[in-house]
Amino acid sequence: MHNCKTTKEHITELLLNGAQTQPAELLECIECSSEFESLKETLRISRRQIEAAVPGETYWNGYHARLRNRLVESGNVHSSNSQKGSAGTWLRRMITASIRVPVPVGAALLMAFALSLIFFSRRSVKVSPPPSAPTVSVVHVPVEVPVMQEKVVTKVVYRESKRKAPSPNVNQGVDDPSLAKSQKVNVPSLIGFKPTDEVKLTVIKGGSPDEK
Amino acid sequence: MNDSETELIRRAQTHDTEAFCSLAELYTRRIYLLALHYCHDASDAEDLSQEVWLKAYRALHSFRFDSSFYTWLRRITINTFLNYERSNSSRKSLVVSAEDEDSGSSVASAETIYNKVLFDSVMNALGELTRSQRLIFLLRHYEGMSYDEIANAMNCSTGTAKKSVWRALGKLRNKLEINNDETEGLAQLATEY
Q: Partner of B150 for a Cys bridge, out of A3, A80, A143, B161, CB 3.0 to 4.6 A?
């Protein structure tokens, strides 16, 4: 079923895509056929007139010369800007550069830096001589130091490892005088004991409350 | 893209100005023509078209031969035009005339007069459109771009692109007096879409 409205839309696209002859379906409809020819003519004339606006060859010589000048100027400006820009950029990057450091590592680095500063400052204080100090000459003089020599005396003491069991006869075995002497001190004996003639008993009352 | 053009592009990418000028000479007329019909002012057209070439010169190192050089250049052209429109939106003048071309001849033939009339009609018809509509019409009719490509490049819908083309065709047909008595198809189509 032929639809003129849809066909007209189709005609425009056909012509814009470069169609030169009418499709068979358009020949059947006078209105659409006329539309096709009308649009074709419009596009042909407009294209020709659009192209006719291009200036002549004399204009293009000047145009290309002006374009060349602008390109050269642009190239010079661009190169000088890029040189300045590269130095400036490098400096800016150096100043604004930042890296991420973990807090422990950062603290350790700060500590190490502080310690190294302290170390070097002390060292420089020690090493650097005072500016007004006179030159000191070092003279090596040998000095004799008396050495106290001590005499070491070694005394060997023998100890009895086992105590002899007491003999039944006290008087027996007192042959060894050194042993008898030691027994006189340590072992109690009843030698020389004389019992008394009267027995004297003393009773003490009021001892403990449990006593009867 | 032929070998000589590829060679020119490669040389121009190393900041060889002469090679770039030789490359530009291949397309200056097409770019100038687009600029001329876009801004409808001869001096503005020269500035605008040369601005396109300067931008292309600066950006040429980014050309990777993925498309034809002219396709790449046309995208720069459209972007430059759109930026120009934003910065010069208030300006609208029609300075272009066929008389500029034939000012040396004192006696004009009938054919020349007829061409002048046609030229002025076309320019007047296009002058009644906005710059964007003119550019869309030129990209479709003169550059042969598809509606999708135009919509993508101009950041508009395909419907807007079609409407601009139909409106331009309707105005051109009216100005050129090619109307057939029975149909006002395009003008009607443009208003209905």
A: B161
In 3D space, the residue among B169, B137, B125 whose CA is nearest the CA of residue A12 turns out to be B169
CATH number of B1-96: 1.10.1740.10
Interface of A with B in 80-99 (CB under 8 A): none
Chain B residues whose CB is inside 8 A of the A54 CB are: 29, 32-33, 36
User: Chain A 6-65, CB below 8 Å of chain B: which residues?
Assistant: 8-9, 12, 16, 18, 31, 34-35, 37-39, 41-43, 45-56, 60, 63-64
Collect all residues with Cβ–Cβ distance below 8 Å to B19 and sequence separation of at least 6. Answer: B8, B11, B12
Question: What would the two tokens of residue B25 be?
Answer: 């000479």
By the 8 A CB rule, do B134 and B37 touch?
A: yes
DSSP character string of B106-154: SS--HHHHHHHHHHHHHHHHHHTS-HHHHHHHHHHHTS---HHHHHHHH
d(CA B51, CA A44): 30
What is the residue whose two structure tokens read 């320019």?
B123
Ranges in chain B annotated CATH 1.10.10.10: 98-193
For the entire predicted model, the pTM comes to 0.60
Q: Which tokens in the block code for residue B120?
A: 């002025």
Residues 6+ apart with CB under 8 A from A31: A4, B182, B183
Contact B183 A9 (CB under 8 A): no
> Helix, strand, coil % (nearest 5) of chain A?
55, 0, 45
- Topology at the third CATH level for domain B98-193: Arc Repressor Mutant, subunit A (1.10.10)
